[in-house]
Amino acid sequence: MSTKTQTLDHEAVGAYLRGRLPGFDSDFEVVKFQTGQSNPTFMLKTTEGNYVLRRKPPGVLLKSAHAVDREFRVQKALADTDVPVAKMHLLCEDDDVIGSAFYVMDHVAGRNLTDPRMPDSDPQSRAAVVDEMSRVLASLHQVDIDAVGLADYGPPGNYFERQLARWTKQYRASETEVIPEMNELIQALEKAMPKEDGQRGLVHGDYRIDNMIFASDGPTCQAVLDWELSTIGHPYADLAGVIMQWQMPPGSEGRGLAGIDRAALGLPSDQAFIESYCKRRGLDGIDNFGFYLSFSFFRMGGILQGVLKRALDGNASNPERAVKLGGFVSLFARSGLEALNK
After folding, report:
1. Start and end of every Aminoglycoside phosphotransferase domain (predicted)?
2. What phi and psi values does residue 148 have, to the nearest 5 degrees?
3. Three-state secondary structure call for residue 297
4. Tens digit of each residue's pLDDT (9 = 90 or more) over 207-266
5. Distance, C-alpha 229 to centroid of its chain
6. What is the CA radius of gyration of the chain?
7. Which fold has domain 10-106?
């Protein structure tokens, strides 16, 4: 296992940020976050306030993966929109500074809810948080990409066709064993590909409750995090991603709501959340949602396969957790086939 993903060159970071950001003319503390499998993330505690440094992992990486420059660009572009993001400070693309590209942003204080069951909340509070998730998601998909300078943030054409080809290629590049269900799902999605419907906007790519920071005393979202997979694409991918996550097993690994009495907890059904989102966007409904849900399961399976491959290669941010997550690939594939067949 490489220790480079677990540590940060304190001296090199300080030398680079000194004179560029307040707080680095004296000693500061570095603390690594254990969350975030893709790009290692660190808290920088200074006398002037706290920052977050997010870096590309060192080593041989899949092409187009770990794009911290894109993360920086999209969050900077969203600064004056209705989508809450952390304040971006600087991007360093010089690998010689710490061994890989990185960016620094404000640390956003608040609650990071890693379990969608929200065990420490009451039904009313849970309902308010999920409604805020719906509001922020609809706001994201209504961002004027031309006005914020993101019209070229993704290529034109059928988003799902493009994404299926991309993630199939990524999956093959990180494949460690033959998983028949994944092969079957890829073929099924190719056959079921819907026609382009004209919807094109900014998508987050991994929109879920644990990639958000909420106010410590209420449901207001303070920042949406982890924009590595963001691009210009079809908004239903993000919506289906939320539903996909909820259909996973509950607990620290699945982080889902499968088998949970949602009504008793104050949580909406899948359909109620979809209807809330559609109402905010002025949509009558969504046809063929099974395809979008199936695609979400496939893509997450591909992502987790990449996480497993990095763990085996010694480049994972959290190796032990990475291996556990890699065990979910076949489960995601089976779930994708089930969603498509429904």
Report:
1. 31-253
2. -95, 5
3. helix
4. 999 999 999 999 999 999 999 999 999 999 999 999 999 998 898 877 899 999 999 999
5. 6
6. 20
7. Phosphorylase Kinase; domain 1 (3.30.200)
